[in-house]
Amino acid sequence: MPIICKPFVFVRHGETPLNRDKLIGGRSDVPLTEEGEWQAQEAGALLSRYRWSGIAVSPLLRARQTAELALPDAPYAVFDGLRERDWGDLELRPWSELTPYEETPPGGESWEAFCTRVVDALNAILTQYERPLVVAHSGVFRVLRRYALGTPYGARIGNVEPMWVSPGQSANEWRILPLEEADEC
Questions:
Q1: 182: confidence class by pLDDT, cuts 50, 70, 90
Q2: Which domain holds residue 81?
Q3: Which of 2, 63, 69, 148 could serve as a FRET partner for 118 with CA atoms 20 to 30 Å apart?
Q4: How high is the mean pLDDT of the chain?
Q5: How many domains, in total, are found in the chain?
């Protein structure tokens, strides 16, 4: 299923104890570290320069805290479909034990089910808002990368690194670049 062709900004949550320690933390609901709180507040300086038609946030604490610290006076809507992937038995294990994305982890969510859930949530957001800010997780960004580049593989997106996601010139073509480099905003 394609993503509705509208631009938006994606931000991964701030640092948590799990990603600081390179542990798999999909469905684990952990708070930000002090560093993560600082990252979110710092990103607020950039994010507050823009007028958002809506702010869509994962229900997990780390994403909600990031939105609240980055844009403290802005209301946001929680979208369950933006949750990170459920890694099942691999939760809290080292990143080195991650299986390829296309494989279903033991007791976890399949890649296709995860992609479908994320795309459904993004389409609901893009139907509701003209130019939203989406605050979620690195797995959600990998789904975006799959649509933009044809693969979920590549460098992990940094914590609280705003990315401009926009449709390209042709159908099913997407561009992803740092918000500060986007001249279309």
A1: confident
A2: 8-180
A3: 69
A4: 94
A5: 1
pLDDT in tens, 7-29: 999 999 999 999 999 999 999 99
**Active-site residue, selected from the candidate residues 13, 15, 109, 137:** 13
Residue 3 lies in a domain: no
Is 1 domain-assigned?
A: no
In three-state secondary structure terms, 23 is strand
Active site residue 137: no
Q: Known catalytic residue: 13?
A: yes
Q: Is residue 2 one of the residues assigned to a domain?
A: no
**Domain holding 47: CATH number?**
3.40.50.1240
Q: Is the pLDDT of residue 184 over 80?
A: no
pLDDT at 148 (0 to 100): 86
Name all contacts of 107-112 with Cβ < 8 Å and 24+ positions apart.
108/26, 109/85, 111/152
